Amino acid sequence: MEDAMLQLPKAELHLHIEGTLEPELMMELAQKNHVSLPYDSVDAIRQAYQFTDLQSFLDIYYAGAAVLQDESDFTSLTWAYLLKCKEDNVVHTEIFFDPQTHTARGIAFETVLSGITTALKRGEDELGISSKLILCFLRHLSEEEAMKTLDQALPYKDQIIGVGLDSSELGNPPEKFQRVFARAIEEGFIPVAHAGEEGDVSYITGALNLLHVKRIDHGVQCIHDEALMDRLVKERIPLTVCPLSNIKLRVFDTMAEHNILQLLDRGLAVTVNSDDPAYFGGYINENFAAMRRSLRMNDQQLKQLAINSFEASFLEPEKKAYWI
Ligand code: ADE
Ligand code: ZN
């Protein structure tokens, strides 16, 4: 990216590692692991990425994840993402992983975790990129299954900073996971949740009041509730916004209609993130570039968004202070 402003150091706080599976790697791993795909070329995979809403994306995304089989596959996936971070000058990243997507296929929790963490350690050593891991519960599955996943994570508390909630939002409100989050908090995990992506403001207030989240993932629907926006400003609850994702999944019809700069100018701690960049047309700098093209974002706003990304991170205070 030629624009010097885009080379500002930044943190990424909303990134699903399974969503970084590029079609080339998907094809390569499908062949290696003898997994059959409903596509016969990399181009055909890209062609299939036409979504009408969140669910139409999730169906394709879970099917693609089936090519991830052994520990080295998770390492390759994560390493490829870290190389993208290096290109975009993402110096710190907080990565979501969805263990249930893999354990449901018979892959051990440990295989997933250790594959990812091997790459993260190498990223720190060789690329100077710091990272944290956040375990997401799939909200279309039951409370009981989420509780079981939390049990599996307990021996690895030192490697997982937080818990999140993702997958199909509509019909799976925060209250379904209230007990799981209470227990995760007791065990020392920091809570976050996807809320207000497709769901209305009640999903955001539910995440705040019932799950006690420290950040809202997406949250763009808060614009419909002045009192809620006042609260998010006052309590400095960040929103991890994903502009290209929101266009691809039709949360907004066009980038010109995206509300991220309105929320920023209203004083909310919004950040820019790529969500599932292999599926949505780009990594973090492509998100900034698209905003710049369609939203008349100025350099001051861009700088503020980069500062917000560190402020909203779960970095240790001295590391935060270094970057701000
Ligand atoms: N899983 C991966 N990406 C997601 C998104 N944008 N919303 C909900 N669940 C997801
Ligand atoms: Zn997400």
Automatic annotation (TrEMBL):
E.C. number: 3.5.4.2
Catalytic residues (UniProt): E197 (proton donor)
Site (Important for catalytic activity) residue list: H218
Cofactor: Zn(2+)
GO molecular function, one term: hydrolase activity
UniProt: Zn(2+) binding residues: H14, H16, H194, D275
Tagged with keyword Metal-binding: yes
Record key words, sorted: Hydrolase, Metal-binding, Nucleotide metabolism, Zinc
Binding site for substrate: D276
Keyword check for Hydrolase: yes
Catalysis: reaction(s): adenine + H2O + H(+) = hypoxanthine + NH4(+)
Manner of cofactor binding, per the entry note: Binds 1 zinc ion per subunit.
Transmembrane segments: none
Any Pfam family the entry gives: A_deaminase
Record-annotated Adenosine deaminase domain positions: 9-324
Stated family: Belongs to the metallo-dependent hydrolases superfamily. Adenosine and AMP deaminases family. Adenine deaminase type 2 subfamily.
Protein function: Catalyzes the hydrolytic deamination of adenine to hypoxanthine. Plays an important role in the purine salvage pathway and in nitrogen catabolism.
NCBIfam families assigned to the protein according to its UniProt record, in alphabetical order: aden_deam (TIGR01430), PRK09358.1-6 (NF006850)
Name of the protein: Adenine deaminase
Species in which this protein is naturally found: Thiomicrorhabdus heinhorstiae
